[in-house]
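Hi R.,

Here's the chain you asked about this morning:
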Amino acid sequence: MLRDGGADVRARFEAVSRGFDAVRRHAPDLPPFEVGQFLERVSRTRGREFPTGSVPDGAFAWAATPGRVEQAVREVRTRVPLAHRMRSTPDECLNAVREFAAASAAGDSPAAFGAFRTAFPDGRWETALPALDDAYLPALPENDRAALWCEVSAVLRDRFKVHPLELADVVTAVADARCPEPGGDGFAGFCSDTFAFLGELAEANAKDWMAEHRDRYQFVLREPLVELCEAVAERYIHPVLNREHGWDLECDARSGRAVTSICKNDFGRGGPYQPVQWITFYRKALANKRADAQFFVRVADDGVHYGFHLGRSAREAGKQFRRNIQEHADAIFRALHTGNVFAECRFWTDDDLTTEVAVRSAADLRAWAVHKTLAIGKRLPSESPLLRREDLTGEILLTFDRLLPAFACAAEGDPRALLSRRAGAPDGAPPYDPASFHRETFLSEVWLDRVLGLLRLKRQLVLQGVPGTGKTHVARCLARLLAGDRADCVRLVQFHPSYSYEEFVEGIRARPVEGSARGEIAFPVEDGLLCQFAEQARARPSEPHVLIVDELNRGNVSRIFGELLYLLEYRDQAITLPYSRREFRLPENVFVLATMNPLDRSAVSLDHALRRRFSFVDMPADAVVLASWLESRADAEPTDPTFNPRVVLLFEELNRRLARDLGPDRQIGHSFFMVPELDHDKLAAVWTHHVRPVLLDYLGGREERLADYTPERLVGAGERRRKPKPSVPNDEP
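And the predicted structure, written out as tokens:
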């Protein structure tokens, strides 16, 4: 109603008046006050769901969303960190900003406005103000503009924690067309009326009724179906199924193509319209969606189904599917089980997706496959909040990817290559499971359950501890467990002081021009390690991918991650990369495992923004792990049965004394002593060449202090401490 309002005050007021009158024509009984409330509620509508209850005041009801403001703040601070801005700002500007803050607090908006203009005479920030509050216009009197600016700046400072020195740049960044609004495009969600409309259509199903509800149909059903089809196609069908697998599926969001028509083609039998709508992705080469297996989304009055479908008309695809199921049922079962399909999805055997079949084994899979109509997928009831959000796109494409082995059985004559990769381990190889993790790390099931729970809360976790506690080894084992033992789904990088954003995210590279006789150099923008890894994870959304960052705090983490630090927490949003100017999302299936030694003197401390996005797990020097490893050794039978207990005693006494003398953060990790075929000679070598240099560093290089830390003295002290004290006779009668 307002988009044609024009730029001047009169035109905008007339546009609002026309909108007001339009509402009154449709609802003449509403008093003006309630019309105003209605328009206010419309301005706060998210997606297509109209808010029915009271809505709390937001920051900016008619202009930029909070997400857009937050992204502008991130971009400003990426370009100029606040600490650097405060150090480099001239004293005259600082004094003017202080005057602005004092006048704002005192309610003197004209003085505050003038002081801020003195601090930032470049008028771009003032020109950009309508992007935050559309009531701000250059035609307004200066006192009114001053009052509006103080209101806007108060919101930015209080809600978004913008420093007064950053206000001008943040306002300009919000208005900059290059600052996209995260999640602004794509699927805007269904609404409650989507399912009410389909229910009413099933009862009425007449042309007169549809003519009356044509606009409603477009808004609540047709538009979201098209948006959902295009969003899934853009994020998964095109880049994964068509480009990577070469299946060339139909993605055109038009009637008769990927989206069904509302009009029924059955010559008038049962009503002229379809009360159930489908999105179907099928191979174009078959030219008929019913003749092929499909990835589908089905929308009816009771909710939404989505997954894999094979109808009775798909004879050739069905024949190939059933043959592959009978021949490779075990491999298919493992591949689907790795994607958690049997826990997350349902198996159906009819067109209405109401008859469920229990599938718990490869034999059950074979029995299910003999039916003429088959489907695997999930169902969301009409009241599910997920149906109203853009997140539905990610949930659908994740389910499609989990069911990829089933589609491959219908599309490929020999699906074994895909099945083998999805199953995680080659045929006959034992799976890497929690028991395998325990055998390699000697950590308890309680520890593993706690860590997996933390990874479910946040997808980033730091293992921290003194040297030698096995942080990197445990991180690699944990990554192997998370990734289902797929080596290509795990990547390791070690941070160091010279490691950069350009290596990790993206940057400009110097490359010789091929075929140039003059040795010309080109400077293309190339993806760094994280963007490359994220692209692979995005193509395989149901497979967990794990990035291991060794020695996290030895690099300048805020600089290396840059604006991607935001995406660690907000995986459903996108940011604009500074070099390529393209939108980038961090996929939901990327986990980050990091290791760090908090006391590394060559490392930098982690800021609070980074710490808030990671879970931290301590890896202490653990005598139980060392003792368990010594007991499990498959070496030759020990000639000295006291050797293992004495090694554990030496380890315990050494760390007890270090904790007493230097503090608990100066200890020796158990992995120093976990040497294959450990015996007396190797223990002496480990002590001399591995443990002693660390002790010398802990003791500040003072050789004389090492006399208190010899193995003989430590073991002797430990034995005396453990030796039971003689009982004292009681001489009392």
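The chain is about 45% helix and 10% strand.

Let me know if you need anything else.
M.
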